[in-house]
């Protein structure tokens, strides 16, 4: 039956609407992929005016799920072993202060990574990279110089709370970290005298307010 002028052709309208939706989804995926590649490239590229100006959005996108432990044109393998210890404190019913012994919260990550062909990114690098980000934002004095420094401190604290809660699910009000860093000895070259690694460096952070629910 011939179509009269003004009749709505549903057979043409539905595919056209579907094509518009599919095109919008494809465009969104392409834009997201392009943004991801661009931000990761700026993260691993040598320092330049663009990466310095966009430092906050780059780090907000990359960490913790897309973290890259290498630099473009300048590979940067990890040269240190980092052990992070935590202890918690609370007030007893009598009003006295109490605290736990130091607990190595790195051991669970190491155990989950060794002999595992497909370790997760969280167990491989989350705790260690949180510590590196903290030292970059604070230096040696543990003083937060801005909002970004405060965010890095809270990020490290929250990971530590999560790790200690998995092993000791007791109530606590404060948490403190101690970090022991030791240099990884270079490989034996066969002729030169072996390099003696430096003594491990220990750094104890101040007490942070925290609760066992991670706040």
Automatic annotation (TrEMBL):
Residue segments, region Disordered: 184-215
Keywords recorded for this protein, A-Z: Membrane, Transmembrane, Transmembrane helix
Transmembrane feature ranges: 20-45
InterPro entries: DUF5819
Protein's name in the database: Uncharacterized protein
């Amino acid at each position: 039956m011939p179509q009269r002028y003004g009749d709505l052709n549903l057979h043409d309208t539905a595919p056209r609407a579907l094509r518009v939706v599919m095109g919008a989804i494809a465009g969104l995926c392409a834009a997201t992929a392009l943004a991801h590649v661009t931000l990761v490239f700026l993260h691993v590229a040598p320092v330049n005016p663009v990466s310095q100006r966009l430092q906050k959005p780059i780090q907000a996108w990359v960490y913790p799920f897309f973290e890259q432990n290498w630099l473009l044109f300048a590979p940067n393998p990890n040269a240190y072993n980092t052990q992070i210890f935590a202890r918690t404190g609370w007030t007893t019913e009598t009003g006295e202060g109490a605290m736990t012994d130091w607990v190595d919260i790195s051991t669970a990550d190491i155990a989950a990574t060794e002999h595992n062909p497909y370790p997760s990114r969280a167990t491989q690098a989350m705790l260690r990279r949180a510590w590196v980000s903290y030292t970059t934002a604070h230096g040696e004095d543990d003083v937060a110089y801005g909002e970004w420094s405060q965010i890095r401190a809270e990020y490290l604290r929250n990971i530590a709370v999560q790790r200690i809660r998995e092993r000791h699910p007791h109530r606590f009000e404060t948490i403190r970290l101690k970090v022991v860093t030791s240099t990884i000895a270079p490989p034996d070259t066969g002729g030169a005298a072996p390099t003696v690694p430096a003594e491990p460096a220990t750094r104890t952070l101040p007490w942070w307010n925290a609760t066992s629910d991670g706040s």
